């Protein structure tokens, strides 16, 4: 049984695009880069269902252009054990064979965290010598013990994502943020690790982040996610695609 590509799905939802809209954007991107493709709603469905684990190069470039993030951040792992499969419509796809998880590797999470959350973290700016707070509304999708988090585009000038694993009430993983190109950090990318503790209600995740600063020193700070809505419908995402304080 294939695992859904929650990273790609969360990214698409954060852009407030339907599968049809996303396919249309992929076709337009392919035309712009001189690599036409025939992306369709069905193709996007197969990507998100995990049926296609490695898009062809032209599709990969279109995916990066449409989403603005590297292909590896869209849930497509690199691998060398590749093979060609018939797509059932007269074409073929290049796939990567990944080993199945070992027995007992997947623990059943105690809660389902999918929905819209408010992300809030604090950091110290050495250049400005003061503390700052960064907030985003994010789409969180869960599959088994994996959580994928992607910020809604209109909730902040920067874009942020997390890839997390749930083990009981402990949530551990990595984060990445692309700062605004016109802001203080001029489009710099920052990333690091994060560990959160789920409160008994399952509606608040609290912990700390760690990451490198602009001077290559290791920084830490508090990070919390607060539940807002269990829906990921287009109407719900539109309602939260704004600054948290608006």
* SS class: alpha+beta
Main pleated sheet: 8 strands, antiparallel, barrel
Average pLDDT, all residues: 85
Cα radius of gyration in angstroms: 19 Å
What low-confidence regions span 5 or more consecutive residues with pLDDT below 50?
Answer: 79-87, 91-110
Strand content: 35-45%
Instruction: Describe the strand arrangement of the main beta sheet, using strand numbers.
Output: 3-4-5-6-7-8-9-10
* Cα shape: globular
The helix/strand series, from N terminus to C terminus, equals HHHHEEEEEEEEEEH
Secondary-structure map:
Blueprint: H1 6-14, H2 19-32, H3 41-49, H4 57-67, E1 82-86, E2 92-96, E3 115-125, E4 130-143, E5 146-151, E6 159-167, E7 170-178, E8 189-198, E9 204-212, E10 218-229, H5 234-240
Antiparallel strand pairs: 1-2, 3-4, 3-10, 4-5, 5-6, 6-7, 7-8, 8-9, 9-10
Q: Please, could you describe this protein's structure?
A:
The structure is a single chain. The protein is about 20% helix and about 35% strand. α2 packs across α4. It has about 250 residues and is α+β, with helices and mostly antiparallel strands. It has an eight-stranded antiparallel barrel. A two-stranded antiparallel sheet has the order 1-2. A hairpin with a 4-residue loop joins β3 (about 115-125) and β4 (about 130-145). The chain is built from five helices and ten strands.
């Amino acid at each position: 049984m294939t695992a859904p590509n929650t990273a790609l799905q969360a990214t698409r939802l954060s852009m407030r695009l339907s599968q049809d809209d996303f396919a249309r954007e992929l076709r337009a991107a392919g035309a712009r880069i001189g690599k036409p493709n025939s992306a369709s709603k069905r193709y996007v469905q197969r990507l998100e269902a995990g049926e296609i684990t490695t898009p062809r190069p032209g599709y990969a470039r279109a995916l990066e252009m449409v989403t603005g993030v590297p292909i590896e951040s869209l849930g497509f792992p690199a691998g060398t054990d590749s093979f060609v499969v018939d797509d059932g419509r007269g074409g073929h796809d290049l796939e990567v064979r990944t080993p199945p998880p070992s027995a007992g590797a997947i623990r059943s999470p105690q809660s389902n965290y999918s929905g819209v959350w408010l992300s809030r973290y604090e950091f110290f700016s050495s250049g400005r010598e003061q503390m700052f707070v960064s907030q985003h509304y994010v789409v969180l999708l869960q599959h088994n013990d994996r959580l994928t988090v992607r910020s809604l585009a209109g909730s902040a000038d920067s874009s942020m994502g997390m890839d997390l694993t749930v083990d009981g009430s402990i949530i551990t993983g990595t984060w990445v943020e692309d700062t605004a190109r016109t802001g203080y950090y001029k489009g710099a990318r920052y990333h690091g690790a994060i560990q959160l503790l789920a409160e008994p209600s399952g509606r608040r995740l609290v912990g700390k982040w760690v990451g490198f600063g602009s001077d290559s020193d290791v920084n830490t700070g508090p990070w919390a996610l607060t539940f807002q809505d269990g829906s990921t419908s287009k109407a719900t995402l539109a309602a939260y695609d704004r600054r948290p304080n608006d």
